[in-house]
Amino acid sequence: MKRKMFALVSLFVAIALVLAGCATPAEPQVIEKTVEVEVTKVVQVTAVPEPATEEEGGEIAVIVKTGNSSFWQNVQTGAMDAQNELQEQTPKLSVTFLGAQSESNINEQINIVESAIDRGVKAIVLAPSDVNALIPAVEKAKAAGIPVVIIDSLLEGPEDNYVSFLATDNKAAGEACAQRLIDDVKEATGDDTGKIAVMSYVAGVGSEIGRVGGFKDYIEANSNLEIVTTQYSNADMPTALNQTENVLNANPDLVGIFGANEPTAIGMGRAIEQAGLAGKIVAIGFDGNSVLQEMVTNGTLQAIAVQSSYNMGYLGVLTAYQVAFAGETVEHFVDTGFIMVDQDNIDTTEAKNVLY
After folding, report:
1. How large is the average pLDDT for residues 124-150?
2. Among 42-46, 117-121, 154-158, 317-321, which stretch is predicted with the lowest mean pLDDT?
3. What is the pTM assigned to this prediction?
4. Class of the domain covering 2-12+24-168+308-337
5. Fewer CB atoms inside 10 Å of the end CB: C or N, the chain?
6. How far apart are CA 223 and CA 184, in angstroms?
């Protein structure tokens, strides 16, 4: 099944090249495929040493923002499935999975990356917790001849510091969430005016900049809704719950609210339920674990934008292997896709492919 998925990636690369130059639509486009690939730039891999031999094997270190959420655990599932497949040809290959105690603990993640470099891993798959703070560590890996594949959140700095970037188009996903909120507010109230709130997670993270930035810009450009506050939970569910309670109490006339990642959206949803506002306020979430799925089913959330976190782990490890063990040049950007899930499509195959 995973080989078929990887074949689909190649197919979509071909399609993307044929369609290059087509005009970009004005409205945000929701990707309703498990994986969609867009090649924006191909970087020749020149900083990578001679590839490891299949007999030699070695470690690919997958380092994420935290291991304490279902989203990142699903990344781990994909990474380990890739390991199992690749061990058929490289039995001594190992894939390790590490993350900080919390997404806001940036120094801990830096230490994890530096430790991986010091023990001589063959490649690193990294979801950076900060767009700038991880640059020196990635540059250190490059200097040591260790290829780095970035997933989920784009890293600033020179693009040739890393060999590939695999992620959701977070700007497009944020815009899609904004469009859905606007549409549902119009349906509930008759127009696109009123107060809304943004419940975000960690300021400065690449995914947050694209996702929340895209949401806010789209709201401003395409509606008369007023964003009265943006809160940052540090990706901590209890914090998001308390923050949402405060926002709801301070703004009893709120018409909509957006929870921008898994723990934040869960905390937001629970606050809405405890306030007796389920179905009375338009609430859009992000990510797709079982708790958020239940909130969609029972009407607490009108929709959730769901990334394919599994693909980030699976394709991240495959890409790292291609560079470190096969010496191949890989696509510099791979869009791993997203889908808007609501009560109408939550039981479809397309939704089940990304929900976890």
Report:
1. 97
2. 42-46
3. 0.82
4. alpha beta
5. N
6. 12
